[in-house]
Write a structure and sequence with these properties.
transmembrane helix, mainly alpha, 2 strands, two-stranded antiparallel sheet
């Protein structure tokens, strides 16, 4: 099974930019149009509402209010969890064209399981 990773690192502005790229690509995929389990992963309106909630929390958190910042962090964690579920589903069920479209978006990368050994093995 292949593993894919969403580029969710960095400040909130880059995360928001990556979301603005990821979801239009996702909504245009063949798997989303035909074989999407809306009860488990959410419909397009549910996903769009999550994005809008994060965008609102981002805008309100710019004032420096601690409650708004905590709400923004919670919304980001919720959205990141949903994106990871979507990528796991896509890695199993999507066709090659859909996977290529996700990888060509620039915000989804192929994650290898092998770890590079940084030190030499003692003899």
């Amino acid at each position: 099974m292949d593993n894919y990773s969403f580029n969710s690192t960095g400040p909130d502005t880059s995360y928001l930019a990556n979301i603005n790229i990821f979801f239009p690509v996702l909504f245009s995929l063949e798997i989303f149009k035909n074989r999407w389990p809306e009860d488990k992963l959410g419909s397009q309106s549910v996903l769009q509402n999550d994005v809008d909630l994060y965008r609102q929390m981002y805008e309100s958190g710019r004032t420096g209010n601690r409650l708004h910042i905590a709400a923004r962090k919670s919304a980001r964690e919720n959205l990141s969890g949903r994106i990871q579920k979507i990528l796991r589903y896509a890695s199993v069920m999507a066709e090659e064209n859909d996977v290529k479209a996700l990888l060509n978006s620039g915000v989804v990368t192929y994650k290898t399981r092998k770890k590079a050994r940084r030190t030499t093995k003692p003899v």
